[in-house]
Amino acid sequence: MDLRLISRVLFLRAAWRKRDRWDPARIAAHQDQALKELRHAAYAGSEFYRRHHAGLHDAPLDQLPPVTKADLMEHFDEAITTPGLALADLENHLQSLTQTGGDPGRPWKGRWWVAATAGTTGRRGTFVWNRAEWATVLASYARANDWAGISAGPTRPLKVGLVSSRVPSHQSAVVGASLRSRLVPTLRLDVTASMDENVAALNRFQPRILVGYASALKPLAAEQRAGRLHIAPQGVMSASEVLTPNTAAELEAAWGIAPSTSTPPPKPPASPPRASSETGTCTKTF
């Protein structure tokens, strides 16, 4: 466990709780300032973005030419804002991680956390974060627990059951391995494993939070209703896929709680719409 990383995550999580009380005007001001800082960092450190946005460095976002994942990967070494990092080296690291079954939570070269998408929609994306940036990613994941009112402490570990990809280069694997500790014991289940195997593992583990793709949670809900799965999670969180109203209703029927996603819960109707008070981290691949 990386104590410096966990300390930073806990600090950010506490600081961000205060933002739940921000009004829309303060959120908008924060977003505007964060966007200016993000663009300044990109233009200062990235040859690709200086060229791609030439003459538009102060233009509104809707006037900027888009950047696709394929564009970003094709120009990765120019787009990146940290000299010395190269896509070929990161891909070699991820390949080695997969082949050797290494620990995805251990930073590469002691300072970089690396993950890749599955590539099911085309060319896969590879992304890298330094310690401060990765702490921001982890803290943003933890926000869902705050919104669900689920706490953790030394006497009550936050047991998380995660049903997703177990490929070590997948971001969910890197997140889970980074947070692995006595406070957050995590059971990672392969979404492609047999239903009997996953049900038995969850029954033994008894997670306080169940997280997974909507397509993985739906059959588990059916197992719960059929009496083969016996868990009582305090929170059920759907990630990475669209959670349809029908699936959400099935999950709530199984566990008695409405499932949540990675967005904050809505305020009562009398309150005005609220934008998110968090912004994306300026990753090294910006």
Instruction: Please count the beta strands (DSSP E, at least 2 residues each).
Output: 6
Q: Helix and strand string, N-terminal first?
A: HHHHHHEEHEHEHEHEH
Sheet with most strands: strand arrangement: 4-3-5-6
What is the overall pLDDT average? Answer: 85
Secondary-structure-based class equals alpha/beta
Summed up, the helix count is 11
Spans of at least 5 consecutive residues whose pLDDT stays below 50 are 263-286
Distance between the termini: 28 Å
| Radius of gyration of CA atoms, rounded to a whole number | 20 Å
Q: Strand count, sense and closure of the main sheet?
A: 4 strands, parallel
Q: Classify the helix fraction into a percent range.
A: 40-55%
- Provide the β-strand percentage band: 5-15%
- The shape, in one word, is globular
Compact summary:
The protein is α/β, with parallel strands linked by helices and 286 residues long.
Tags for this model:
286 residues; alpha/beta; four-stranded parallel sheet; 11 helices; 6 strands; 44% helix; 9% strand; globular; disordered C terminus
Describe this structure in words.
This protein has 286 residues and is α/β, with parallel strands linked by helices. It contains eleven helices and six strands. The strands form two sheets. It has a four-stranded parallel β-sheet with strand order 4-3-5-6, with helices on both faces. The chain is globular and about 60 Å long. The two termini are 28 Å apart. The relative contact order is 0.14. Mean pLDDT is 85; it is low at 263-286.
